[in-house]
Amino acid sequence: MPIYEYTCNDCTRLTSVFVRRVDSQVAPKCQHCGGERMQRAISRVAVHKTEQQILEEYGTPQPGGGPDSYKDPRQIGRWVEQRFEQMGMDLPQEARTMIDAAREGEFPAPVKDL
Ligand SMILES: [Zn+2]
């Protein structure tokens, strides 16, 4: 069942609306203030980050490394590992495989879903 997210124009909070069918008409109401001036919010999950956005959000891989170090596959691997370590998370298998490939000199597809 698809879930649509709406932003309330009155209180600016998000309301999630379950819809039975993708093409069904919904008249969402704000679940926080009851407002009816709702605006469809763009799903955060569907937004793919560009390389530039990643750099802006997380900074360059190494202090003083500059944008070029990001293009070094070995740097990318180390950076991702450190990130997950800092977050106290295990590295997903997919990322592990990608990093291993990168270290063998194989430059992977652009980082998408990290
Ligand atoms: Zn509201």
Report what the structure shows.
This protein has 114 residues and is of the alpha+beta class. 32% of the residues lie in helices and 12% in strands. It contains four helices and three strands; from the N terminus they run βββαααα. It has a three-stranded antiparallel sheet with strand order 2-1-3, with no helix packed on it. Strand 1 (3-8) and strand 2 (14-18) form a beta hairpin. Helix 3 runs antiparallel to helix 4. The longest helix is centred in the last third of the chain and has 14 residues, at 73-86. Residues 8, 10-11, 13, 30, 32-33, 35 line the site of zinc ion. Zinc ion binds at residues 8, 10-11, 13, 30, 32-33, 35.
List the keywords.
114 residues; 3 strands; 32% helix
Radius of gyration: 20 Å
Q: How many E-type strands? A: 3
Shape: elongated
Distance between the termini: 25 Å
Average pLDDT, rounded to a whole number, is 74
**Reading side by side through the largest sheet, how are the strands ordered?**
2-1-3
Query: Can you write the helix and strand succession as a string?
Result: EEEHHHH
Q: Based on helices, strands and strand pairing, what is the structural class? A: alpha+beta
Bound molecules: zinc ion
Tell me the β content: 5-15%
Main β sheet profile? 3 strands, antiparallel
Number of helices: 4
